[in-house]
Amino acid sequence: MRLVPALALVASLAGPALAGPAAAPATARAMTSAARGQLAVDEVKRSLVAWKAPSARLDVRAAIVPFNGDPRNPITGEGPVEVYVSDRRLHEGGLVRRLLARMNPYTRQKYLVHVGAGGEAHILDRISLAPHRRLGRFLADKLPLRYLAVDFLRSGKATEGFFTAVGATGAAAVNPWVSGALYMRLAQVLKSGLESQTKLRRQALDDTVAWAKTTHTGSTQWPTLMETYRAYKSRLADLQEGGAQPLALGDFAEQLSIRQL
User: Fold this and answer.
1) Sorting pLDDT into bands at 50, 70 and 90, what band is 40?
2) In the chain, where do the E strands start and end?
3) 204 and 236 in contact (C-beta within 8 Å)?
4) How confident is the model over 82-110, as pLDDT tens digits?
5) Minimal CA–CA distance to 125: which of 83, 63, 70, 159?
6) How far is residue 88's CA from residue 142's CA, in Å, rounded to a whole number?
7) How far apart are CA 122 and CA 108, in angstroms?
8) Which of 58, 61, 65, 151 is the most buried (most CB within 10 A)?
9) How many Å is the Cα radius of gyration of the chain?
10) Domain spans of the chain?
């Protein structure tokens, strides 16, 4: 009858050694989407303090549907947070005033904000949502003439393409058949120049991913997104001969987020 109290007394004197293994500490929970959105909103608000007009009354909010990236990616994480900024004056005044407010590129904007696992926030890009700016981006996406022209002019094929175009234009008045052949050659030169730039970008991105892995192996810490982006531009500058145009930061983050790191 006295055996149970005696065992209890022995266990209490022995301490935790007989009490079984201690409970493992709880692992830190991943940051919620709402918390990431609030950090991004706070960062945008801080950036607007010195730039917004005194009469502006801004609403700053995170997107209702967040961008779901790969949380296993140690550089981009779950992807950039979209933050929308709108001026309440959009809905005030007469028709002309509201129309002018909508055409103002700063009245409605979208920010892309990177939020790290430690809570650090960095603005990646600012995009105007004014109607004419959105139309311009739509046309540029469907007819990327400027993008193609920049790539072509900065590639090694630009000189050959220029003289081919001059020859095709001059031959048009003499022999249309020769002119057509030269224009076909111009199209081939343009395609070759663009392909070379795309190849350089892809190689620079692959080398940047390898650099990030090497950096992590040597220091056990992954580089930040901005450090990785600077390394990408530096590597592209080393590879290029004619001047390849780097990816925009937002496009770079999107490409990097799908890489296995």
Assistant:
1) very high
2) 58-62, 81-87, 108-115, 121-128
3) yes
4) 999 998 877 777 787 778 777 888 888 99
5) 83
6) 32
7) 20
8) 151
9) 29
10) 33-141, 144-257
